User: What shape does this take?
Amino acid sequence: MAPTPSSWPDLAGRIIDDETGRRHVLPVRVYFEDTDFAQVVYHASYVRWCERGRSDFLRLLGTDARRLIDGTDSHEPAAFVVRRMNMDFVRPGRMDDVLEVETRVKELGGASVTLDQIVSRDGTRFFEATVTLVLVSVSGKPLRLSNVVREAFRSA
Assistant: This one.
């Protein structure tokens, strides 16, 4: 029998509401494959973890990449693409660290959403990024965010 999402309730991380606002947190463990020869996190690993954080954040908000691509949440199939990503590598992570990828909505535009992402451990920051995503049709044309997608992000 195939596992269901309820079998692993935290697989997609969780959305947290507290005095600092609403954010998505995804735990990640640093494996050997995520590091360089010195067992320090390879820079591209942070980008990959942030992508997972954004994908799972969208999933927990009630819409996901598959629903966008098949057109469930809009009038035509679409996907989010990275338009801009500003990154700051603050300090090195190391093999076996358990890090948290935190994602927050910074700004909503007509066809875009800007997110702040932080990778940290116990409040110590390792990596920070501001990412602007644009919703595009399968032909690459920018699309306005649907009401469903806009409200999902606005609730965050």
